[in-house]
Write a structure and sequence with these properties.
The protein has about 350 residues and is an alpha/beta fold. The protein contains 14 helices and 13 strands.
Length: about 350
């Protein structure tokens, strides 16, 4: 009898890139590299099923990429993907999966739809709250990215603890690019004189606290730079009032993001809940000190290599930023500790864990 085929859900390749999509792409490409190096896996068929509008590149050699069906997005995932993977173990890495496929492995990154409903539209909440417990019940295995997320998925009844395995994110993707320092000139930034933060207007990201900090004169001489898709209009539409002088980068390349981290005074990340917290770890990996809130998985991921400030304490954030800017010894210590901490998280290690789980189930 030939080994059961494995099919990866490639719906994410038809969407604008997000952090969740990055995780899926990194896991698949690194797992593909493991397959290419080990003939033990050659007898199993490995596929990547994509809807017809999938255009994003993904470099794989052993895993065969194939367009399936005529539908797109959710209808494709729920109606056509199950047929394409009907005799295979189906691996879904972006929270959702077909509700009718029984031999599946699904990565659910967090429980944010239960923890912070204000961050999502009513339609999004309704679908995810309906789908996640059903996906959890049907799956052969649920994966998540931190012990914190596993606890929350159990708490909200998405899946029992013994069905959930933790595969942390990697952070070494920025090692592959050459820093594009031209972004500093384009944005008129001075090295060491700006604070980088998440350009995401979702309520749980808590960027409103940073607006409060930078509206105060204590931050004179420092600029707040928000890296991400949301612009000033998006924050205003979310009921927030960015102070004058805040710079919105929009979407940037990995090369530009690397430069922004490397030349920032620090990263400020006051999120109230995170399933993992990739931006602080990205910054730390490049020697950028991180200040984070002691919330969600952030203490689990950052450990003692970051500074902490309460998510409602603007004065504590202002003080922490000033300490890093003004205290060279502290900054050097945080840079070293951050790099050491980030080196624990490698995509190849995460892909190996995923491969072991696939082999267990398939």
């Amino acid at each position: 009898m030939s080994p059961t085929p494995v099919v990866f859900n490639g719906k994410f390749l038809s969407a604008n890139p997000t952090g969740v999509h990055r995780v899926a792409g990194e896991l698949i490409t690194h797992l593909d590299q493991l397959l290419a190096k080990d003939s033990h896996y050659a007898g199993r068929a490995w596929g990547l099923a994509c809807p017809r509008d999938a255009r994003a590149p993904l470099s794989v050699s052993t895993i065969r990429r194939k367009r399936e069906g005529v539908l797109t997005w959710q209808p494709w995932e729920q109606l056509e993907l199950p047929r394409a993977a009907r005799n295979a173990t189906l691996v879904n890495l972006c929270n959702l999966a077909p509700l009718t496929h029984r031999k599946s492995i699904t990565l659910i990154h967090d429980a944010q739809v239960f923890l912070t409903p204000r961050s999502y539209s009513r339609a999004f909440l309704s679908w995810y709250r309906f789908a996640l417990p059903r996906i959890g019940a049907a799956a052969a295995r649920i994966l998540t990215i931190s012990e914190y997320s596993r606890d929350r998925l159990v708490e909200f009844g998405v899946a029992p603890r013994d069905k959930i395995r933790v595969i942390p994110n990697g952070v070494d993707h920025l090692d592959r690019v050459i820093s594009d320092t031209g972004i500093l000139k384009r944005l008129a930034l001075t090295s060491g004189r700006y604070v980088i933060a998440s350009g995401n207007a979702q309520a749980h990201k808590n960027v409103a606290l940073l607006f409060k900090v930078f509206a105060d004169g204590a931050m004179d001489g420092l600029t707040l730079v928000l890296a991400g898709a949301d612009d000033r209009a998006a924050f205003t539409a979310a009921g927030l009032s960015p102070p004058a002088g805040v710079i919105f980068t929009g979407r940037v390349s990995d090369a530009a993001l690397r430069a922004l981290y490397e030349h920032a005074a620090c990263l400020a990340f006051p999120s109230r809940t995170e399933g993992f917290g990739l931006p602080p770890l990205e910054a730390m990996s490049l020697g950028c000190p991180a200040i984070v809130a002691p919330c969600g998985a952030l203490p689990e991921v950052c450990g003692e290599a970051a500074l902490y400030a309460g998510p409602d304490d603007a004065a504590a954030w202002a003080s922490a930023i000033r300490r890093i800017v003004d205290d060279g010894d502290l900054r050097t210590a945080l840079k070293y500790a951050g790099v050491v901490r980030a080196n624990r998280y490698r995509w190849s290690d995460s892909a190996r864990k995923l491969l072991d789980i696939i082999e267990e189930i398939a």
